[in-house]
Model the fold of this input.
Amino acid sequence: MITLDQIEKNQVGKIVALDTDAIPLKLIEMGCLPGNEVRLVQVAPLKDPLYLIIDGCHLAIRKETAQHISIELIA
Done:
């Protein structure tokens, strides 16, 4: 199990756990929940933010926030 900030471009994972105190409610409402699939699409030139697709929603989140989301790699 790794955190979301550690995946490489185009890797796919499944969210296993997250720290709800450190994650904005808006991300949870947009599908950032355990069991949902996440794919890293792009990383900004300075490595922050990360552009992701989580459960069909396109999101950009800060690397600091991604460190609080645990995932299990699928592919």
In short: The two ends are 13 Å apart (CA to CA).
